[in-house]
Specification:
The chain has helices at residues 5-38, 59-62. By secondary structure, the protein is mostly helical.
Length: 65
């Protein structure tokens, strides 16, 4: 059976929110990339070592010693 007008209206409202969200997210990404390019923002890199490979932190390793 065909969808009711009420159902179509509800779906259209949900679609409108999704389309607005897509524009907002695209704008936010563009702004961020522009800030990177201008040097206003930068990528901060964190180097995290794998703690499970550390003899002093992993009980399975330090119990073997």
């Amino acid at each position: 059976s065909p969808a009711t007008q009420e159902h179509r209206d509800t779906c259209q409202k949900k679609l409108n929110v999704l389309l607005e969200q897509r524009v907002d997210l695209s704008t936010a990404i563009d702004d961020l990339l522009n800030d990177f390019a201008s040097g206003e923002k930068y990528v901060k890199v964190y180097k995290q070592m794998k703690m499970y490979n550390d003899d002093s932190l992993n009980p399975m390793l330090y119990k073997k010693k």
